[in-house]
Amino acid sequence: MTAIRHEIRFLLNGRKVTLTDVPPERTLLDFLRIERRLIGTKEGCAEGDCGACTVLVGRLSGDTLVYEGVNACIRFLGSLDGCHVVTVEHLKRPDGSLHPVQQALVDFHGSQCGFCTPGFVMSLYALWMRVPNPSEAAIEKALQGNLCRCTGYAPIVRAACAISSYGGVDTDPLAAEREAVTAELKALRDGARVEIGQGRERLVIPASVDDLAHVLEAEPEATVVAGSTDVGLWVTKFMRDIAPVVFIGGLEALHTISEKDGTLSIGAGVSYSEAFPLLATHIPAFGRLIDRIGGDQVRNMGTIGGNIANGSPIGDTPPPLIALGATLTLRKGDRRRTIPLEDFFIGYGQQDRQPCEFVEAVHVPLPDPNTHFAVWKISKRRDEDITAALGAFAMKRASDGTVASARLAYGGMAPTPKRAAAAEAALVGNEWTRETVERAVIALEQDFTPISDMRASAEYRMMAAKNLLRRFFLETSGDPGPLEVARDHKEIAA
Ligand SMILES: Cc1cc2nc3c(=O)[nH]c(=O)nc-3n(C[C@H](O)[C@H](O)[C@H](O)COP(=O)(O)OP(=O)(O)OC[C@H]3O[C@@H](n4cnc5c(N)ncnc54)[C@H](O)[C@@H]3O)c2cc1C
Ligand code: FES
Ligand code: FES
């Protein structure tokens, strides 16, 4: 029998907080600013883009305390059970002096109006704890999710390079309280399910993955929330009623990622940041793609499971996963089924997911040394932007040089992430030559009828999809010729 608790418990700046009244859609930012008057944390966009609301959330991963920067504006209060929330107010030293990160920003003129500054401080703080002497590239990556409209980034980066000269990580307040916080978070683990609220206005935090399966059977209408980087915006931007809510982000068993017999299994709770090291090692092109999803805060919260489950045609991970031949395990009660990922996407906003069923894991066959794999994302900005079109390609050649297998999957080209069946057919069995590829390029017109929207016109999308396939050819064939040679489709098709 699962024990049930009717309160959430977490640490806020080292002090224990217990709450019995937690509306399911209450954000951490509103709680901090409105209820606790911790107004150092700012609200800029309320959609995870600007980073003004960045705070650190510490959680136990096994027995290790891990701190990550998150966007408080789209993080739900209810998801913080068992965590340590650290806001900019906690950085002050006992004598009232500024923290090294703050002092460096002052001295290097890294702040003007100051609105964005607490968010930059928290992002740089998270980086400094991990990498005390970061490279400029690491700093830029850590700041992908922080926008400043007045200072300019050069002084901020200069400040970031100098932080360690102001004091070592060993003098840091979080380092000093680390053992005590770890012990307190361990003491908060009681293995209970959390249930708060009445009727529809309820939130549930299951005690385990088995318990999640039971909870969903009893709550078929509930909104499953993993990292809330999509669902958070449903609340802050679209004022949607998401109750009742089931928070799954804290379920450690869903955070596992493992490699066995050439397959990577990624639990539905694995965040982009957690997945990055293994993905980047085994499939470097996939690692580079992850680097372009949101900023660090979004990558720390957002999950690959959520990216799949939301079924968006412009989610970045489904096309490369489909190209690699990934399968998806869905679970309903005690029953599991595993399907090819591409079959999960039925139509716009429609997935092969039954009521009460949830995504448990995705399994990714690692490409063997004979497989050429690439994925490229096209968006208006390099960082922090949503895809206009994305192409993912996995291709194997036979010993005679012909194409033995080809899986081409695109995002942004159809109502779902989708394979290019006609283009694949034009490739398989034929020599991997410019002429073959140009036939496949023409076949893409049979595969896709993209739409025009604010991100790109239909014509642009089609041209980008074609050129990505050509790029794949050029990068895998060693053919150095100019792209223009292959422009005249009619001539080649004749
Ligand atoms: C600033 C910003 C930038 C972003 N940039 C990108 C980007 O570059 N590329 C991109 O692809 N996306 C981007 N996103 C979207 C988002 O980060 C991803 O879609 C993310 O992977 C969603 O995961 P999540 O865990 O946050 O999902 P949630 O928001 O928690 O959930 C998303 C959906 O999936 C469902 N769900 C989640 N987990 C499960 C499960 N285990 N079983 C069943 N249903 C489940 C939820 O009910 C919901 O319908 C961005 C978002 C923000 C805020
Ligand atoms: S307020 Fe802009 S990211 Fe949260
Ligand atoms: S200092 Fe003004 S927005 Fe950054």
Structural class computed from helices and strand pairing: alpha+beta
Number of helices: 18
Strand content: 15-25%
Average of the residue pLDDT scores? 94
Record the strand order, biggest sheet. Answer: 1-7-8-10-9
The kinds of small molecule bound in this structure are: flavin-adenine dinucleotide, FE2/S2 (inorganic) cluster
Largest sheet: 5 strands, mixed
- Number of distinct beta strands: 21
Rg over C-alpha atoms, rounded to the nearest angstrom: 24 Å
Give a written overview of the molecule.
The protein has 494 residues and is an alpha+beta fold. It contains 18 helices and 21 strands. The strands form five sheets. Strands 1-7-8-10-9 form a five-stranded mixed sheet, with helices on one face. The longest helix has 20 residues, at 458-477. It starts with a strand and ends with a helix. Mean pLDDT is 94; it is low at 483-494. Bound molecules: flavin-adenine dinucleotide and FE2/S2 (inorganic) cluster (FES) (2 copies). One FE2/S2 (inorganic) cluster binds next to loops.
List keywords for this structure.
disordered C terminus, binds flavin-adenine dinucleotide, binds FE2/S2 (inorganic) cluster, 33% helix, alpha+beta, 5-stranded mixed beta sheet, 21 strands, 494 residues, globular, 18 helices
